[in-house]
Write a structure and sequence with these properties.
heterodimer; A: alpha/beta; Alpha-D-Glucose-1,6-Bisphosphate, Chain A, domain 3; TATA-Binding Protein; 7-stranded mixed β-sheet; 19 strands; globular; B: alpha/beta; 3 domains; 15 helices
Chain lengths: 446, 445
């Protein structure tokens, strides 16, 4: 699978250099610039060793098409998306593999307001890519590159308008941060200073490779757990490489599931939002939290593109996914981990509770996430067979197949970002989850 | 027949921005070169064209893609890049310059270890890699290194080579016109360092070139005027990548690129070292006179810097060049270098105590005509056989096209490497004879 590229609105994604390389990056950027036709393209990258190389290929193609390139260098994607709301850009490109392993990377295309492209916009770009008929500017009309610094103060100022920063400041929190040597590494100090957080950073050197898979999860949290324990910190957190996902470690040095981030976020927003959007594979804690604060929640396809576009079309203020991502439309169009952190810290200080107290009322649920490697040419057959098997159980086909039984649900879907089928099972009893896993494995194995 | 403006040849890749030279092609070519070099370090420099930024980003991406470490030298003359590559023992270099082509063009020129252009056979190997399109792409690219003083290596070599104290004592006033090109940021300080008083025209970096970048007489109006206005002793015109040089005398009269080379060689032989001389087949006969006056032998090579350089190495020549103003001094580096040329001419004036026009007058006069004729390769074969038959009485050299020498005139005709044209050159003792002979040749063509 090393030479296979995944192309979708979730990004043009693959392993470097077999699938994703400078040639592919350059062609997609030329196609995207041709689609945009004019204006300025905002550009940023994460800390992966291949990102700077891809950024140069992208930049060359943007200016060759006659569009200007506003290059923010290494920057979290949500920061770029935040700025794109405020300033006028024709579109944006973020070069980041997000949660993918170090050897991967991706070209993420953003529309004028910082949203991921929707499916119809994406297909316009991919059509131009396939036709290979790119816009070429004459020498006089080539674009210019502007090397820019992200105005963090604007971001913090906006944060202070939506949450009570004074209460966080009074909390005097001691916090362990693990940005996974990703693009947020260099911004955390200023962020912590603003909130008067006593920050204990680990893995915050973007020059170094990732210390563990860049996916905020319980499995990857052992370092943070150890440091929280030894320093007696109030909490710890993990980010993915472009700072779009977040998971916590509580004051008892116990890692929380990344599925808890979004429900915690919703609880924090009590009284501030009326409607939320999540995906068909997100934990039922999301429904519980929505009910708890008296709002409605509906489910859509997986991925930032579909969640944020559904939020916009249905007028939902909040959104998020079980992967540890959250979004607040009044703030920006992206999944933003530092927004999640600030909002949840404010909740802690307002309630005067520690993290374990906030998660204590969560009903007991067990979730299992399974990946099965299935090449794209087999996906259709496998999914079709499962559909036949489960059609009597009234499946929800929003994204793959979702079956709800008493006290348990499961979802099987092809991933947008990897060559795998993703299975999510969640239930009140661990045993039930396990028996469904056996059932599915037997049926997929057939 | 459709002729593409994209030129992929052993000279590199060349094309028009917004037409044929796309970022994808530049990437591919840089990846091919980096794959061919196979590792180590590659320096990158550009001239001042507005498209340099677009090209450079793609070049760096291509180099990084194939696991080679790039060094960014910014805007730099091509001889300085070659000398840097040699002195720092790098594995190669890429020069982003379309040299004397108009501003809408750009190109990549490829430099090998040792600071010379890729040898023709190597360039063919590279093209093979390029067309196969299978590159040595790596998982972990290297990082870009930035050189803050890219010109220093070149400058110091020239400073050590000439007698700067002698030049200083003569209060020589110089006007220099780098054509807003790659030398613009360096040439004034360089000439002052040699001990001259300097006035600079067309030194500012602007969109496009202030004049046609080829340093031939008809493009040097600004410089000639400035020489008269400032009552300077000498004027220098460089082309955009600063490999070629043309001098203007104290009266504001261009002495021509051929005579610029001739004077530099003349001085080298008289004052620096006795050595054989190598020039290309298109070079004026005045170089043969210069060699004869110093009683050294002269050799002719195929056209092209790399051919002259290799012939110089073969026959042990310390000095040589190409008649179009490309002066090559082995003490600095066997590449065409306008800076070495300027240093030699300044020292010549200082040493002789004469005016430039007087030194020029000591050499015999020739009149040269240069012309391009549109012709395909098939046309060229026909032209060649007709001319060979007609001029069988002269002294024939067929190393590179056809050169025929008669006592009072010679001509050289060869197909261009870069365009579908044949280049015709005729030189005679005077204008009248040159014109007559030129007309006869054109009738045959």
């Amino acid at each position: 699978m090393k030479d296979r590229l995944r192309i979708s609105v979730s990004g043009i994604r693959g392993e470097v250099p077999g699938a994703l390389n400078v040639e592919v990056a350059s062609k997609f950027s030329s196609a995207f610039s041709s689609y945009l036709e004019e204006g300025k393209v905002a550009l940023c990258r994460d800390s992966r060793c291949s990102s700077h190389m891809l950024e140069m290929a992208v930049c060359s193609s943007i200016i060759a098409s006659g569009l200007d390139c506003a290059d923010f260098g290494m920057l979290p994607t949500p920061f770029l998306q935040f700025l794109m709301r405020k300033e006028s850009f024709a579109g944006g490109i973020s070069i980041t593999g997000g949660h993918n392993p170090l050897s991967w990377n991706a070209i993420i295309l953003l529309d004028t307001g910082g949203d991921y492209l929707d499916v119809s916009e994406g297909s316009e770009v991919f059509n131009i890519y396939e036709a290979g008929d790119f816009r070429k500017a004459q020498w006089r009309d080539l674009g210019k590159t502007h090397t820019l610094k992200f105005p963090l103060e604007l971001y913090l100022e906006k944060l202070s308008k939506i949450i009570d920063i004074e209460s966080i400041r009074k909390g005097n929190y001691k916090v362990v941060a693990d940005p996974c040597n990703g693009s947020a590494s260099t911004f955390l100090k200023d962020f912590a200073e603003f909130f008067r957080i006593n920050l204990i950073p680990i893995n915050d050197n973007p020059e170094k490779p990732f210390p563990h898979p860049p996916e905020p999860s319980m499995e990857n949290a052992s370092q943070v757990e150890a440091v929280v324990k030894s320093t007696g910190a109030d909490l710890g957190f993990l980010l993915n490489s472009d700072s779009s996902r977040l998971s916590f470690v509580n004051e008892k040095a116990e890692a929380l599931s990344e599925e808890m981030t979004f429900p915690l976020f919703l609880l924090s927003l009590k009284g501030k939002v009326k409607k939320a959007i999540t995906t068909t594979v997100t934990t039922s804690w999301a429904d519980w939290a929505a009910e708890n604060i008296g709002i409605t929640i509906s489910r859509t396809r997986v991925g930032q593109s579909s969640v944020v576009h559904t939020m916009e079309s249905e007028g939902a203020e909040a959104g998020g996914e079980g992967s540890g991502s959250v979004s607040l439309l009044s703030f920006s169009a992206g999944y933003d981990s530092l927004l999640a952190l600030a909002v949840i810290l404010e909740y802690m200080s307002r309630e005067e509770k520690v993290l374990s107290e906030l998660t204590q009322p969560f009903p007991p649920l067990h979730m299992k996430k399974i990946k099965i490697e299935v090449p794209p040419e087999r996906t259709y057959r496998v999914m079709d067979r499962l559909e036949e098997i489960y059609c009597r159980e009234n499946p929800d086909c929003t994204d793959g197949i979702r079956i709800e039984r008493k006290g348990v649900w499961f979802n099987i879907r092809p991933s947008l970002t990897e060559f795998v089928l993703r299975i999510t099972i969640e239930g009140e009893k661990e045993k039930e989850v396990e028996s469904i896993e056996d059932e599915l494995m037997a049926r997929i194995g057939q | 027949m459709r002729i593409s403006d994209l030129k992929i040849s052993i000279s590199g890749i060349r094309g028009i921005i917004g037409e044929s030279l796309t970022p994808q092609l530049i990437l591919k070519f840089s990846e091919a070169f980096s794959t061919y070099i196979g590792g180590g370090k590659i320096a990158v420099a550009s001239d001042t064209r507005p498209s340099a930024e677009m090209v450079k980003n793609a070049v760096f991406a291509g180099i990084l893609s194939c696991g080679v470490s790039p060094i960014d030298l910014g805007i730099l003359p091509i001889p300085s890049l070659q000398i840097y590559t040699k002195e720092k023992k790098l594995d190669g270099a890429i020069s982003i310059t379309a040299s004397h082509n108009p501003v809408e063009w750009n190109a990549l020129k490829l430099i090998r270890k040792g600071g010379h252009f890729l040898y023709p056979l190597e360039a063919e190997e590279l093209l093979d890699v390029y067309y196969q399109g299978r590159f040595r792409r790596v998982e972990k690219p290297e990082k870009i290194e930035i050189e803050n003083e890219p010109f220093a290596t070149h400058e110091q070599k020239v400073f050590h080579f000439v007698d700067r104290d002698l030049i200083k004592t003569k209060n020589i006033k110089v006007v220099v016109d780098p054509c807003g090109g790659a030398a613009s940021s360096y040439v004034q300080k360089f000439l002052e360092g040699l001990g001259a008083e300097v006035v600079c025209v067309n030194c500012g970096l602007k969109e496009g070139f202030p004049r046609n970048p080829e340093p031939v007489a008809e493009n040097l109006g600004d410089l000639c005027k400035a020489v008269r206005k400032h009552e300077a002793d000498i004027g220098f015109a460089q082309d955009a990548d600063a490999d070629r040089l043309a001098a203007v005398d104290e009266n504001g009269v261009p002495i021509g690129e051929e005579y610029t080379l001739a004077l530099a060689v003349d001085f080298y032989l008289k004052r620096k070292k006795r050595s054989p001389v190598v020039v290309n087949l298109s070079t004026s006969r005045v170089l043969e006179d210069v060699a004869r006056m110093s009683e050294v032998s002269i050799f002719m090579s195929k056209v092209g810097e790399i051919n002259v350089a290799r012939k110089m190495a073969e026959v042990g020549a310390k000095i040589g060049g190409e008649g179009n103003g490309g002066i090559m001094v082995s003490d600095i580096h066997t590449c065409r270098d306008s800076f070495s040329g300027m240093a030699l001419l300044l020292e010549y004036i200082a040493w002789s105590g004469k005016k430039l026009s007087e030194i020029r007058a000591e050499l015999p006069d020739y009149f040269m005509m240069k012309h391009k004729v549109k012709a395909s390769y098939k046309d060229w074969r026909k032209i060649l056989s007709r001319l060979t038959r007609k001029y069988s009485g002269g002294k024939i050299q067929d190393l590179d096209g056809l050169r025929v020498d008669y006592p009072d005139f010679w001509f050289h005709i060869r197909p261009s490497n870069t365009e579908p044209v044949v280049r015709v050159q005729v030189e005679a003792k005077n204008r009248k004879l040159a014109k007559e002979e030129f007309k006869k040749i054109m009738e045959v063509i």
